[in-house]
Description:
Structural class: alpha/beta
Keywords: 4Fe-4S, Iron, Iron-sulfur, Lyase, Metal-binding, Pyruvate, S-adenosyl-L-methionine
InterPro entries: Aldolase_TIM (IPR013785), AmmeMemoSam_rS (IPR027596), Elp3/MiaA/NifB-like_rSAM (IPR006638), Organic_radical-activating (IPR034457), Pyrv-formate_lyase-activ_prd (IPR016431), rSAM (IPR007197), rSAM_sf (IPR058240)
Number of strands: 19
Binding site for [4Fe-4S] cluster: 96, 100, 103
Oligomer: single chain
Pfam families: Radical_SAM
Protein name: Pyruvate formate lyase activating enzyme
Strand content: 15-25%
Distance between the termini: 49 Å
Amino acid sequence: MYSEVQTLRDVLIKNSREGELYRKIDDKRIECFACGHRCKIPEGRSGVCKVRFNSGGKLLVPWGYVTSLALDPIEKKPFFHVYPGSYTLSFGMLGCDFHCDYCQNWVTSQALRDPVAGILPDFITPEEIVEIALKYKSKIITSTYNEPLITSEWAVGIFKIAKKYGIRGAYVSNGNATPEVLDYLRPYVDFYKVDLKTFNDLNYRKLGGRLSVVLDTIKMLVEKGFWVEVVTLVVPGFNDSESELRDIAKFLASVSPNIPWHVTAFHKDYKMTDPDNTRPEQLIRAAEIGYEEGLRFVYAGNIPGYVDKYENTYCYNCGALLVERFGFRVVRNKIESGRCYKCGIDIPGFWG
């Protein structure tokens, strides 16, 4: 397997170009600021993500390939306040700056880190990706499946072309960002989903990140005008205590009560096979906590039909049922021109 990993690394180096999200420290070292690690990378080495390389004092970054390309329901990302019932063209590459033991996309995200992970890429141009989006009338192209921050130059290369056709960009991310990368993305990315994995810094460090960086990212995203939705995968024994879930909800409400919070069900995957799968009643209680702490839109996901009313969108003013869902399927959408059909109040999001 080692030789195969080396071969994959060689393929990735060949399918790279000089990045934009870095600075030179000296003749041999560079600092990458695509993610919150801000790796200082010596000549011939890669950053934490394993896919951004220092070659001759220049930062080489992924370009010209995908490992996954699919037309997904927008609700799968999940975005519940972005064009309900529509589809987004989703693409992914290789690598991640975290190493979560329960990652559901580990085959791509842990490439070059885990010897059993990694698949060979399919080569494609930004123009071809946009052509596919146009063919299928996708309003959005989403960078997902691996961590999009570490492949931001490629995403922007696609989104720049897509924007000419009125197609918007979206990120599905762990939120380990920097001010520089968010400023770089803002002209081309409108929708940003963040995984807020825990409110315990020690647990975040076990996953490869820091809580403070993710919290700062959420604040910056809102300040910079991205549409933000946040997901917390509720893992029994890891982050499912009522006090921790309440802390997450309090924080989000303090940033904006209009941030949709998705609490989703863990199932055994990759290296985490000890905890029990999340029970529906745990998700329902988490959603209740979100509302108790002042959030206006809280959703329970991954167990369609078992989470009571928490798949639906309700008016925060009059309580009217606005968007009825079953899993990723929209059953009814009664929002009219971005407003509640019953009381007329604006409902935050993108509905047209």
